[in-house]
Write a structure and sequence with these properties.
heterodimer, A: mainly alpha, B: 5 helices, transmembrane helix (chain A), cytoplasmic vesicle (chain A), Vacuolar ATPase assembly integral membrane protein VMA21 (chain A)
Chain lengths: 93, 161
């Protein structure tokens, strides 16, 4: 019985690590690709060649990625805490 | 004295290099120092790792600032018809962004390291950590803004044909 609980814990940990790794990969790629591509695309198609506004757009997009990362990490933390609480209630009974 | 000497691009290219190199040094310091804290925290509270990676992401953004300014300055460089004034402006822009990125990365590194270690024991430190990190990050943002303003002045440089 305890081996089954241990095995389920290990698979749950592995699943959590897999999804966390995927999120980290997505954010790393986004931080590498989005600012520089938004600089060039906005300079050519949005601001009509004005490089200053394009650089501000790139800096703003980097900030947006940061905000998205903070939101994702806080939401994931809240979800983990909510998942932990029912299990603890079951244990204490 | 010519307005467009042949050694003028030296200063412009120096600005490109300074912006990228110095902001990357700051970002590397921030990433490594915060990573030390995360490695210490991850040993006994692995569920906090995702939230503790915020200083590392902010250090990456400092390097993005340096990259954007480098690309911006490099877009205005010319082999001929490039005045010494434009070269100095580009050098100043690159140095402004680079050194402020160095300062911001330094701050983010120390704050990230200490705050993620404190976050293990007191969860209310998280909001304070994010606020302090944001204040450290806007140092790099100020350098970016000054670099942008300086670079926009380089277009009014005299032409020599």
């Amino acid at each position: 019985m305890s081996e089954q609980i241990a095995a389920s814990k290990i698979t749950a940990q592995a699943a959590a690590q897999g999804s966390a790794l995927l999120k980290l990969l997505i954010f790393s790629l986004a931080l590498a690709v989005v600012p520089i591509s938004s600089y060039f695309l906005s300079r050519d198609y949005v601001w009509g060649g004005n490089a200053t506004w394009a650089a501000l757009t790139a800096a703003g997009s980097a900030q947006l990625i940061l905000v998205a990362f903070i939101v994702v990490s806080v939401v994931e933390d809240r979800r983990e805490q909510a998942a932990k609480e029912p299990k603890e209630h079951k244990k204490h009974r | 004295m010519s307005t467009c000497p042949p050694y003028a691009p030296f200063f412009g290219l120096g600005g490109v290099a300074a912006s990228m190199v110095l902001s990357t040094v700051g970002a590397a310091f921030g990433t490594s120092k915060a990573g030390i804290g995360i490695a210490g925290l991850g040993q006994f509270r692995p569920e906090l790792i995702m939230k503790s990676l915020i200083p590392v992401v902010m250090s990456g953004i400092i390097a993005v600032y340096g990259l954007v300014v480098s690309v911006l300055i490099a877009g205005g460089l010319r082999p001929t018809d490039y005045s010494l004034y434009a070269g100095f402006v580009h050098l100043g822009a690159g140095l402004a962004c680079g050194f402020t990125g160095l300062a911001a990365g330094y701050a983010i590194g120390y704050v990230g390291d200490s705050c993620v270690r404190a976050y293990v024991y007191e969860s209310k430190v998280f909001v304070a950590m994010v606020l302090i990190l944001i204040f450290g990050e806007v140092l790099g943002l100020y350098g970016l803004i000054v670099a942008l303003i300086m670079n926009s002045r380089a277009t009014e440089a005299p032409r020599c044909i």
